[in-house]
Design brief:
Low-confidence stretches: none
Shape: rod-shaped
Strand content: under 5%
Radius of gyration: 39 Å
Number of strands: 0
Structural class: mainly alpha
Order of helices and strands: HHHH
Oligomer: single chain
Mean pLDDT: 86
Number of helices: 4
């Protein structure tokens, strides 16, 4: 019977070894699954972050395009306004004054006011500061031109100051929108 006990012990030992191997295989499979899941999660996070970065970059490009367009409209309108304001002042006392004032100066002023509003809405704080200066000077020119007696020298000086602010604005936004 000694041989029978040994055989039974060997079977029990083989069973425990077999169960131990099964545990290790199960743990290895579980570990592999866990590694695979973590790798998949890491890959998903990486793809998500890349997509988020691409979305942010696209949003920044759109914002930059909108600003560039608004700033361009403001500068073009400012230059057209200056031309019409100076032409209006130059025609004081002549027949063509009213036609110039009503047909060219007033529409140029309105267009510039709209461009200022749009640029203020989309502009950075430093751009808005310069736009407020431009607006103040434009309004000052409007008040001067609306007076019965127009101080031509003061109009020219204010328009010159306005042009300097516009030029400063252009220099400032060159680095901002590109």
């Amino acid at each position: 019977m000694a041989n029978g006990s040994d055989a039974e012990a060997n079977r029990n030992g083989a069973d425990s070894t077999s169960k131990g191997k099964e545990r290790w295989v199960a743990l290895a499979a579980l570990g592999g699954s866990l590694i695979g899941a973590l790798t998949g999660l890491t890959g998903s996070l990486l793809v998500y972050n890349q997509a988020e970065d691409a979305r942010r970059q696209s949003e920044l490009r759109r914002t930059s395009d909108i600003r560039r367009s608004a700033y361009n409209g403001l500068v073009v309108s400012s230059r057209a306004y200056r031309t019409e304001a100076l032409s209006t002042v130059n025609l004081i006392g002549l027949e063509e004054y009213d036609k110039q004032h009503n047909d060219k100066y007033v529409p140029a002023d309105t267009k510039l006011e709209q461009a200022e509003s749009l640029a203020r809405l989309v502009g950075t704080e430093s751009a808005r500061t310069l736009i407020r200066k431009m607006t103040k000077l434009r309004e000052q020119v409007n008040r001067l031109i609306a007076q019965d007696y127009i101080d031509v020298e003061k109009c020219y000086a204010t328009m010159s100051e306005h042009a300097k602010v516009v030029d400063k604005f252009v220099e400032k936004i060159d680095t901002e929108v590109i």
